[in-house]
């Protein structure tokens, strides 16, 4: 199979309307879900992912593969690690084996080593279980060989999966650390190894906070607080399905400390469960308050110690039914994450990775006062995505709202609104276009937003079938899929219940 550049539809390639995104990665003509094996190596970002090479619904799980030099434009490659009669290839991670601890490469030319979950099929000697296995590449990730000694770690469990492995350097020396899950027990289990082949149990974290579904796709990484390298905390990401704050799939996180053996969450990261063992989901820490950001994990070896995450832009409530063809499902934008002090506690902030050559805004507005009125913005350019950046003083207004992907005077649009009384930001797709393909799709998601000096700050990326909202510098994020009416590209800003001031507003085409 020859490699192909990230597929962008021509006028006649897709069933109408054309929903294939401009900025978000999609496979050419197959299904994808969880991002796997995110790694930077020799100047290239590698995105591996759960892929069905034979269709556009879930099944035949293998690792698809794409590469990029800028995290925006991706090139699709042949399937990297394929399922076979013995196993499906479930989620996992990749490390660059500097030091050649595994023996798969050399000191001068280290191998890439994939640590993945083998989901063993009927007839296998390990049937009915999930265990961790290895594959390795000695040609910079383009071809892969499964290790003959697989699996390297099992627990006799049917739901032990999703290993994220990283190199830990501590007072007691260095080792590989694995975080994986016992999905149905809502537990993260940690192991260590000297060579990626033999693993020793360390500790268990959980259940904690959101526990209404299976825990999946964990990640554990250090971040400096407010950019201070002398003040470091650890972040544990745990995805959950179902049971997320917006319903169905989502990603929660904990801030705390890791000593090489045990992760300990800070008290302000934990929510006290009620008498029935349930936690108030609105008080848990969420990567995203929308419906469509799941299985998010971070890159290994990203340059300059950047922590960059990508999630699957979908929700298991309706994932197999999205109205697209021949492809189905895609990835979120890459997001750079940092740890900042917010109201005296440490919280993640996320910033989208965008094209470097965005160009001049198609529309730029400053200091416009709106009183119970509507402002029409230029339509998005066909064949482009749209970045909306705004600073708004709600003032005396009850509601400030953006109507996205709509038509002038029409009722079909995606509504992004801020309610100044409740201090909540809501992304409403109930009238966004095609919502009838599944009964759980039409929805409105909201998140608490605290104004900064009375200012609402927004960065909104609108692509052909998605809206990603980064509010207040990325401390609150809402991401939803939408399937608008063909040709609906309009954006309007409206103010109701008083007067608001649009301090800054810019709209830029992205491609």
Helices, strands, pairings?
Blueprint: E1 4-5, E2 31-41, E3 44-52, E4 62-68, E5 75-81, E6 87-96, E7 112-120, E8 130-137, E9 145-146, E10 153-154, E11 160-170, E12 173-182, E13 187-193, E14 200-205, E15 214-225, E16 228-241, E17 250-258, E18 263-265, E19 294-298, E20 308-313, E21 330-331, E22 335-342, E23 345-352, E24 363-371, E25 374-377, E26 385-393, E27 399-406, E28 414-419, E29 424-428, E30 444-448, E31 456-463, E32 466-471, E33 476-481, E34 490-496, E35 499-510
Antiparallel strand pairs: 1-5, 2-3, 3-4, 4-5, 6-7, 7-8, 8-9, 8-10, 11-12, 12-13, 13-14, 15-16, 16-17, 17-18, 19-20, 20-21, 20-22, 22-23, 24-35, 25-34, 26-31, 26-35, 27-28, 27-34, 28-29, 29-30, 31-32, 32-33
Largest sheet: 6 strands, antiparallel
Count of alpha and pi helical runs = 0
Number of strands: 35
The structural class is mainly beta
Radius of gyration: 23 Å
The gross shape turns out to be: globular
């Amino acid at each position: 199979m020859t490699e192909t550049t990230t597929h962008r539809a021509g006028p006649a390639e897709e069933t109408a309307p054309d929903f294939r995104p401009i900025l978000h990665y999609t496979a050419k003509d197959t299904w994808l879900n969880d991002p796997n094996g995110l790694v930077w190596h020799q100047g290239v970002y590698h995105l591996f992912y759960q892929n069905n090479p034979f269709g556009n619904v879930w099944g035949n799980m293998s690792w698809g593969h794409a590469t990029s030099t800028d995290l925006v434009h991706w090139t699709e490659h042949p399937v990297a690690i394929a399922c076979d009669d013995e196993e499906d290839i479930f989620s996992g991670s990749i490390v660059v084996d500097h030091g050649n601890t595994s023996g798969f490469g050399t000191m001068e030319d280290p191998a890439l080593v994939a640590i993945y979950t083998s989901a063993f099929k009927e007839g296998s000697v390990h049937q009915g279980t999930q265990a961790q296995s290895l594959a390795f590449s000695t040609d910079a990730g383009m071809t892969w060989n499964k290790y003959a000694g697989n699996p390297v770690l099992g627990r006799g469990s049917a739901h032990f999966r999703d290993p994220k492995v990283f190199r830990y350097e501590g007072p007691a020396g260095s080792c590989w650390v694995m975080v994986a899950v016992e999905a149905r027990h809502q537990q993260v289990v940690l192991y260590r190894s000297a060579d990626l082949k033999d693993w020793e149990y360390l500790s268990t974290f959980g259940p904690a906070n959101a526990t209404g579904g299976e825990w999946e796709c964990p990640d554990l990484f250090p971040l400096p607080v407010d950019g201070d390298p002398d003040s470091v905390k650890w972040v544990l990401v745990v995805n959950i399905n179902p049971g997320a704050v917006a319903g169905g799939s989502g990603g929660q996180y904990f801030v705390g400390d890791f000593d090489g053996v045990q992760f300990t969450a800070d008290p302000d990261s934990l929510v006290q469960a009620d008498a029935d063992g349930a936690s108030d989901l609105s008080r848990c820490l969420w990567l995203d308050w929308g419906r469509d950001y799941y299985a998010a994990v971070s890159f290994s070896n990203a340059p300059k110690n950047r922590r960059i995450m990508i999630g699957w832009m979908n929700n298991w409530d309706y994932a197999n039914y999205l109205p697209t063809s021949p492809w189905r499902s895609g990835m979120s934008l890459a997001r750079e994450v940092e740890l900042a002090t917010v109201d005296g506690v440490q919280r993640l902030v996320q910033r989208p990775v965008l094209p470097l050559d965005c160009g001049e805004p198609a529309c730029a507005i400053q200091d416009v006062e709106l009183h119970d009125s509507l402002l029409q913005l230029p339509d998005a350019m066909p064949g482009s995505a749209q970045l909306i950046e705004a600073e708004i003083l709600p003032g005396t207004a009850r509601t400030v709202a953006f109507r996205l992907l709509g038509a002038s005077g029409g009722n079909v649009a995606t509504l992004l609104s801020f309610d100044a009384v409740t201090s909540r930001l809501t992304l409403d797709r109930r009238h966004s276009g095609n919502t009838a393909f599944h009964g759980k799709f039409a929805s409105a998601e909201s998140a608490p937003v605290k104004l900064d000096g009375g200012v609402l700050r927004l960065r909104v990326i609108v692509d052909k079938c998605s809206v990603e909202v980064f509010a207040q510098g990325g401390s609150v994020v809402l991401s939803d899929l939408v399937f608008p009416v063909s040709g609906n590209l309009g954006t309007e800003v409206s103010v109701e219940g008083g007067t608001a001031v649009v301090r800054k507003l810019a709209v830029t085409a992205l491609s």
